[in-house]
Amino acid sequence: AQGPIETDAIIIGAGPVGLFQVFELGLLEIKAHVIDSLPVVGGQCVELYPDKPIYDIPAVPVCTGQELTDNLLKQIEPFEPTFHLGQEVTVVQKREDGRFDVETSTGTQFITKTIFIAAGVGSFQPRTLKVEGIEQFDGSQVFYRVKDPSKFEGKNIVICGGGDSALDWALNFVGKAESVILLHRREEFRAAPASVAKMKELCEQYEMQFLVGQVTGTEIKDGKLAEVKVTGADGVTRRLPLDMLLVFFGLSPKLGPIAEWGLDIERKQLKVVDTEKFETNVPGIFAVGDINTYPGKKKLILSGFHEAALAAFGAAPYIFPEKKIHMQYTTTSPKLHKILGVE
Ligand code: FAD
């Protein structure tokens, strides 16, 4: 197995603030590894509103969540950050040498001098089905994401949800699975109209079925989930035999493991010691963006950008104890031009 990656800085969260943290650290010649539990960068901007316009980014009259993210990625390109996506940071532990051990849910390990928590509202996790006893089938018969589509071939599958993920997977499995039933609590969908139309067409051809209703119970036989009980809009509960249940109820953020790292927390937010460095109560760990709290805090992207700049200066002494750090203008500093590769 590969040993831990040694680095000066780790950024937890690849939302707009985590991405801009790369830039501010880069100007100070600090390289960073960026970790996010989502498979893509952009945080809330990409997960919650990729196509919606943002009007309050200074000097950018309007841009969408996706455009902001793309521009940030372009801006940080010179600093060559390493991204570790699709993995949640689970462990942060102070070492005897003053650095930190960091570990992710997929087993990637780091030793770092500083940590920047830009975790926003927490890591996005799939919303689960709230039915008693269903958890025991997680990963065997009940799934919240599809890692290996071949697992579902030839199976009788029930897919819950009314968004794009539910529709896309339902359409995808028609013809591959033994049977496909889409189950949604109402007739209206939050998915692309073309997918909804395709689904209805397949239902008319008896290739799949659509039912209005909610899972309200289970039937377990020989330790297996044999049936789900579905209560329809008419109030009648029916039994639905199945092999696999796929649930796509969207993602909801959870503070998750961050709560266990010995940091001062106030109403699910990380308290920073001051607004000079945005350092937490643990020296060497900084909190920026939506995750932090201090008197006057506003959960705005521009506030996060400012915090990232000051946190970078605050962290520099941990990485370069001997060096005196001066602020320089990107416009005029030959040194910064070199760093930015714009000489
Ligand atoms: P986030 O964008 O929340 O990103 C945090 C990232 O950290 C996430 O990707 C998450 O998966 C990851 N993460 C968390 N915990 C872990 C962990 N343990 N391990 C790995 N990864 C983890 N703001 C404005 O300024 N202007 C606007 O017009 C505006 N419009 C908005 C509209 C909507 C609909 C919403 C929901 C928000 C809007 N906001 C707006 C707020 C803005 O999106 C947030 O302030 C901003 O996204 C915060 O950025 P962030 O980088 O701090 O956190």
UniProtKB/TrEMBL annotation:
Binding positions (FAD): 36, 44, 49, 89, 124, 290, 331
Subunit structure of this chain's protein: Homodimer.
Enzyme class, broadest EC rank: oxidoreductase
Name of the molecule in the record: Ferredoxin--NADP reductase
Co-factor(s): FAD
Superkingdom: Bacteria
InterPro entries given in the database record: FAD/NAD-bd_sf, Fd--NADP_Rdtase_type_2, Ferredoxin-NADP_redctase_2
Pfam families (UniProt xref): Pyr_redox_3
EC annotation from Swiss-Prot or TrEMBL: 1.18.1.2
Family per similarity comment: Belongs to the ferredoxin--NADP reductase type 2 family.
PANTHER family the UniProt entry points to: THIOREDOXIN REDUCTASE 1-RELATED-RELATED
Catalytic activity: 2 reduced [2Fe-2S]-[ferredoxin] + NADP(+) + H(+) = 2 oxidized [2Fe-2S]-[ferredoxin] + NADPH
Cofactor: how bound: Binds 1 FAD per subunit.
Keywords: FAD, Flavoprotein, NADP, Oxidoreductase
